[in-house]
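TL;DR need structure tokens for one chain.
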Amino acid sequence: MKVLVTGAGGFVGEYLVRLLLEHKHQVVAMGVGNGEFLTVLKVPMYEVNILDYDAVLSCMKQEKPDAVVHLAAISNVPLSWNEPGLTIDVNIHGTVNVLEALTVVNPKAKFLNIGSSDEYGLAAKLGVPLTEDVLCQPQNPYAISKYCAEQMVLQLGKKNHMKVVHTRSFNHFGPGQAKGFVTSDFASQIAEIEKGIRRPIIKVGDLGAYRDFSFVSDVVTAYAALIECDVENGVYNICSGQARKVEEILETLVSLAKVKIDIEIDPEKFRPNDVPFFVGTCDKLKKATKWDSKYDFHKGLYEVLAYWRKHGMQ
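>> reply
TL;DR here they are.
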């Protein structure tokens, strides 16, 4: 099938595009910048801002995709607090633009909207693995915008009798992920310490939280499965279903370091954690697609550290 991927030039987008090509799909990319690898792979790239409906529609009319995977978004929580209006525009209005353009061009196509586990918010205070039926209580502009986009696309899909699926994707990591995320932040600091440009100390806040982490290749395999399989419209968690303590992640990465590194608690980084346990269940996804997480977690951490050792100074 022909699959159009928005936000294809980003971290997850590159892994997804490569996987779709391996699955023998025809891939078209839509996004703004960061698409050098697309040229190498000979994937058509449309430099389109999703807030420009006419441009999005023009791209859709030229390509007539059978499916769209909508990755493009503002996904940085601090930025969403600083720019709540822009976050709403991109994550809600932009998402609606993409779906409505697809509706005009090919109403029989499938629309896969990529959301976030952040939508659950304080619902995770239940302290149990979260199912898709749990009532969301988002607590920041990014999460709120994602939840609103979810509800918009599901209702528009229902109105127009389209195939619309939304994911609530939990933490994922891998080589190529930017700083600002747990594993990339820890690994990049270790790489800098090994090169002698940082003191052999990592200062941290609360390491006691439990989170649900998946390697990026497992995540994009789930996305591919959702567009390839005949699944019911609705919400699907993308997660490992395993609780990982943040402290365990740091200790594993430090154990891989080539030099001795001390871990120090920094009172300025220590903030009360409203949600100490944030883990999902992926039973619905497994039942619908036969998907399962396969990538070894510790191998993934090693690969992230190896990436920062190679690319940290670029």
